[in-house]
């Protein structure tokens, strides 16, 4: 595998903004900070974001591997020394140099160049090894970057959802039930779940053990709770009374949808479009069919129990 020649010219420490004696922990921390600012997902309009992110990844791979870092430091040191030697030579000194000194300098230069070539090849071999074996350090840090970006997105979404995203909606359910009624007035936990889950995900359902005919349901979304509040009446022979307990939208006044006669009432008249009205009618037709099916199932279970 060929080595990226551009990497040989990069100042990896400067790219990450750390010193030559930076610890592995400091290198990783600097990588995360830099990578977060130039990640392609956060800079979709910057065509160089992917290139810079790639260079940062290469810098992390080299500087967190002991052998590769040692080879890179040797190359860096050799280039620095060569630059210092060149800087010290001025025109006046060059003119007075004898041929012997010139030959010696050329010999030293050849030796330096050969040494630089040798250690450069060592660095190239270490980089090839890292690419062939896969850098666990790089993969781990990039995984942390992805997780942090995902967390930031989730936090932005939660802020965008406002107060509704902070408190899960809860409704209070009531129905007629005598304390000695073992059937719970026809409402077991399974029956209530079947009735309520058609509006959305039910996170929790708690039937009161102290007060007969009382329960609390927690929905995953406010929309599901509102739909249940507006449309559900429960069993025909024992209607439900449903009211807000927690998580009610501020612009939606509390109201009870079902009374003992099965009639609906609201504390505020609602105006719906023709399409909303048709959707509501279809939902109530499905509810009626589901209630009839549930009643038939309960009767069948009662008959089976009476025959056993």
From TrEMBL:
<dbReference type="GO" id="GO:0005681">
    <property type="term" value="C:spliceosomal complex"/>
</dbReference>
<dbReference type="InterPro" id="IPR052094">
    <property type="entry name" value="Pre-mRNA-splicing_ERAD"/>
</dbReference>
<comment type="function">
    <text>May negatively affect PAX8-induced thyroglobulin/TG transcription.</text>
</comment>
<feature type="coiled-coil region">
    <location>
        <begin position="72"/>
        <end position="106"/>
    </location>
</feature>
<dbReference type="InterPro" id="IPR012677">
    <property type="entry name" value="Nucleotide-bd_a/b_plait_sf"/>
</dbReference>
<keyword id="KW-0143">Chaperone</keyword>
<dbReference type="GO" id="GO:0000390">
    <property type="term" value="P:spliceosomal complex disassembly"/>
</dbReference>
<feature type="domain" description="RRM">
    <location>
        <begin position="188"/>
        <end position="247"/>
    </location>
</feature>
<dbReference type="InterPro" id="IPR000504">
    <property type="entry name" value="RRM_dom"/>
</dbReference>
<keyword id="KW-0175">Coiled coil</keyword>
<keyword id="KW-0963">Cytoplasm</keyword>
<dbReference type="GO" id="GO:0000122">
    <property type="term" value="P:negative regulation of transcription by RNA polymerase II"/>
</dbReference>
<dbReference type="GO" id="GO:0005737">
    <property type="term" value="C:cytoplasm"/>
</dbReference>
<dbReference type="InterPro" id="IPR036869">
    <property type="entry name" value="J_dom_sf"/>
</dbReference>
<dbReference type="GO" id="GO:0003723">
    <property type="term" value="F:RNA binding"/>
</dbReference>
<dbReference type="InterPro" id="IPR034254">
    <property type="entry name" value="DNAJC17_RRM"/>
</dbReference>
<dbReference type="Pfam" id="PF00076">
    <property type="entry name" value="RRM_1"/>
</dbReference>
<dbReference type="InterPro" id="IPR001623">
    <property type="entry name" value="DnaJ_domain"/>
</dbReference>
<dbReference type="InterPro" id="IPR035979">
    <property type="entry name" value="RBD_domain_sf"/>
</dbReference>
<feature type="compositionally biased region" description="Polar residues">
    <location>
        <begin position="251"/>
        <end position="271"/>
    </location>
</feature>
<dbReference type="Pfam" id="PF00226">
    <property type="entry name" value="DnaJ"/>
</dbReference>
<keyword id="KW-0694">RNA-binding</keyword>
<protein>
    <recommendedName>
        <fullName>DnaJ homolog subfamily C member 17</fullName>
    </recommendedName>
</protein>
<feature type="domain" description="J">
    <location>
        <begin position="11"/>
        <end position="76"/>
    </location>
</feature>
<keyword id="KW-0539">Nucleus</keyword>
<feature type="region of interest" description="Disordered">
    <location>
        <begin position="251"/>
        <end position="273"/>
    </location>
</feature>
């Amino acid at each position: 595998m060929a080595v990226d020649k551009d990497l040989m010219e990069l100042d990896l420490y400067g790219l990450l903004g750390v010193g030559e004696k930076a610890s592995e922990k400091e290198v990783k921390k600097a990588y995360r900070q830099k990578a977060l600012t130039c990640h392609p997902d956060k800079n979709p309009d910057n065509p160089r974001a992917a290139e810079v992110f790639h260079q940062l990844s290469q810098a992390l791979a080299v500087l967190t591997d002991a052998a590769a870092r040692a080879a890179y430091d040797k190359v860096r040191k050799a280039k620095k020394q060569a630059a210092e030697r060149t800087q010290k030579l001025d025109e006046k000194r060059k003119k007075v140099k004898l041929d012997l000194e010139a030959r010696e300098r050329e010999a030293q230069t050849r030796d330096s160049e050969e040494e630089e070539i040798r250690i450069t090849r060592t660095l190239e071999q270490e980089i090839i090894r890292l690419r062939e074996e896969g850098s666990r350090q790089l993969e781990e840090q990039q995984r942390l970057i992805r997780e942090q970006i995902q967390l930031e997105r989730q936090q932005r979404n939660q802020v965008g959802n406002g107060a509704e995203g902070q408190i899960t909606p809860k409704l209070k359910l009531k129905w007629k039930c005598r304390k000695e009624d073992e059937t719970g007035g026809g409402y077991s936990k399974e029956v209530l779940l079947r009735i309520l889950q058609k509006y959305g995900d039910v996170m929790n359902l708690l039937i009161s053990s102290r007060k007969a005919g009382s329960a609390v349901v927690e929905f995953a979304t406010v929309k599901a709770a509102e739909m249940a509040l507006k449309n559900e009446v429960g069993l025909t022979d024992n209607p439900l009374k449903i009211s807000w307990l927690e998580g009610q939208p501020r612009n939606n006044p509390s109201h009870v949808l079902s009374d003992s006669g099965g009639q609906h009432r609201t504390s505020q008249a609602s105006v719906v479009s023709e399409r909303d009205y048709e959707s509501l009618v279809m939902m109530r037709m499905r509810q009626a069919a589901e209630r009839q099916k549930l009643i038939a199932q309960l009767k069948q279970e009662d008959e089976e129990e009476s025959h056993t």
